[in-house]
Request: fold
Amino acid sequence: MYRNYLKIAFRNLYKQYLYPLIKVIVLSTGIAAFVLIVIYIQFYLSFDKHIPNIENLYRVIQIQQAEGVGEQHVAFTGPLSEEAVKVIPAITDAVLMMACGSVPVCVGENYHTQDNMIWTDHSVFRIFGIELVASVTTHALTELKSVVISLKTAQKYFGSAENALNRQIVFNYENGYTIRAVMEDQPENAHLQMDMLVLAELSSTIH
Reply:
């Protein structure tokens, strides 16, 4: 009896295959779209969750009035980070950061365009919970013209993290910059990507 039922079902399906096929395609498309939307929402909501104490971390914005441009909101406040910790009890830690985007870097005799470069100070490791993969010092970014690069950048230019240590690079067409440490790569769900950190020289970076 069940065999006859199966024969009838396959016979009807063979005769009217288009309608069931359309339903299967529509159902599959709907399920796939739902799964992709859920994955996207999860990824979006996961941004910066890897940063310790993220709920108490704030970015200070400087409002500038640039001639010919008008009001600009710039996430760079110069020496305010150090002074704020001294005079505002609610602020327990702070870091100076200024993202410069892409900059020219010369490694050996080859020039490259280095992305995700940031002027900052040694507090960046503590506040963002960045681990060092290799280092020649226990306090990275404390010496002028010291540089810390990500693991993928070290592998790109030097083949490994160990080979990158103490190597000299030309940064922004200026000699004398030394790679003092290699840090772990930032996850994809970090809104602030960091592949090269350079100790901020306030006299030359604040205008």
Confidence is low (pLDDT under 50) at residues 203-207. The chain has two domains: 2-45, 95-205. The two ends are 88 Å apart (CA to CA).
